[in-house]
Amino acid sequence: MYIKTHLRIVAALLMREMSARFGNKPGGYIWALLDPAAHVMLMTVIFSAIAHAPPLGSSFPLFFATGYIGFQFYLATLSQVSGALKANKSLLSYPNVAPIDTVVARYILQMGTTILIGLIVFSAIGSTLHTPLRPQWEFIIEAALLGSLLALGASLVNTVLFLKYPLYESVFHIVSRPLFLLSGVVFLPEALPNPFREIILLNPVIHVVTLFRRGFYPEYRAASFSPEYLYSWVFCALFAGMILFTFSTRTLRNE
Predict the structure, then answer these.
(1) pLDDT per residue over 219-246, tens digit each?
(2) Are 81 and 110 in contact (CB under 8 A)?
(3) What is the pLDDT of residue 90?
(4) What band does 187 get if pLDDT is binned at 50, 70 and 90?
């Protein structure tokens, strides 16, 4: 009965989040698609003007789309879920609504949104290629799950720390800005010389992007990818996030 109650609450919050984020008109959903499409197009125009071929394969749009969408499974989830509690603070006055419900609702919505955007973007790119895409779904699904779960763990930590330490929120956003350039969206980590490659591989998100990209390029060996390292980060982030969030539930509801 307890689980059913929270499932209903999460479903109601999910519908509320969809209405607030996308509205009741198609324009909101179209913008959600245009944003990643515009990023991919911009990167394609810039890099095709300075290079004859992408670092992998022969399609600039496919290379940048695999990097950008793979990166969004982490970044978009982190951005949306970290603000879930603050956006739904007024609903916590209802005893049945738990802080974790707001987090779960936004996580599900963002995962669904990123998956839908990815399917549309890659279908559009695939229709322009001479050779049809042959995605390796095991790598794609694994990368999407690991990226979003890494973001979920970090979001649980951020939810608590943003509330307790407003300065931390400002510092976190400043530090996170270069992450796009350091996560393999526009390059392959294997192309970097040491010691720069070893340093940049300390970033777990680059392993998410590498694994996601591997699902679209059968010839890509992804020698820099370390499953042990990425899984360790995901486990530690989720464990730390759940512990901190669970022990701060009363504070999250009352402050």
Answers:
(1) 999 999 999 999 999 999 999 999 999 9
(2) yes
(3) 84
(4) very high
- Tell the residue number behind the tokens 């669970």, with chain if given: 246
Mean pLDDT of 107-121: 94
Residue 248 has φ and ψ, to the nearest 5°, of -110, 10
% of the chain beyond a pLDDT of 70: 96
What single string gives the DSSP state of each residue in the chain?
-HHHHHHHHHHHHHHHHHHHHH-SSHHHHHHHHHHHHHHHHHHHHHHHHH-SS-SSSS-HHHHHHHHHHHHHHHHHHHHHHHTHHHHTGGGGGSTT--HHHHHHHHHHHHHHHHHHHHHHHHHHHHTT-SS-----HHHHHHHHHHHHHHHHHHHHHHHHHHHH-HHHHHHHHHHHGGGGGGTTSSS-GGGSPTTHHHHHTTSHHHHHHHHHHHTT-TT---TT--HHHHHHHHHHHHHHHHHHHHHTHHHHHH-
Tokens of 153: 């763990």
Return the closest-CA partner of residue 69 out of 37, 108, 41.
37
What pTM does this model have?
A: 0.92
